[in-house]
Fold:
Amino acid sequence: MKFAQILAPIAMAAMAVASTSAIAAVDADAAAALFKKNDCSKCHSIDKAKKGPALKKIAANHKGKADAQAAIIKAITTGPKVKMDDGSQEDHKIIDTKDAAAQKNLADWILAQ
Ligand code: HEC
Structure:
């Protein structure tokens, strides 16, 4: 069997996965799992302020803005200085995945709270 014959089905399967995730609705389970795994829940809950604002508040702040998803992704990938509830400043946590689809899914999930 030629190498290309082995690779072609793998490439096709990978493309199928990529195209379904691009059009899929928010995968809430995946987003919540990523959120938990990254200890985001240490500072954010869905509806209560902790060290950081509640996700509902974040969603409300960005509601109706065209660049909402990009703003969220920037906040969780570039480590901007943020003010904690006690007034101290820290670099914001950077998410541990470079997978753009996973980052977008997480951003959409936060914005849907
Ligand atoms: C050590 C505490 C802490 C951790 C851990 C943390 N955050 Fe935050 N986060 C904050 C604070 C504080 C702010 C508020 C910044 C402000 O209002 O200036 C914030 C803001 C945000 C925002 C809003 C950005 C905006 O522009 O409105 C998002 C989205 C966010 N965090 C997501 C996450 C995600 C996802 C994780 C996990 C990867 C995470 N945070 C982990 C403290 C934290």
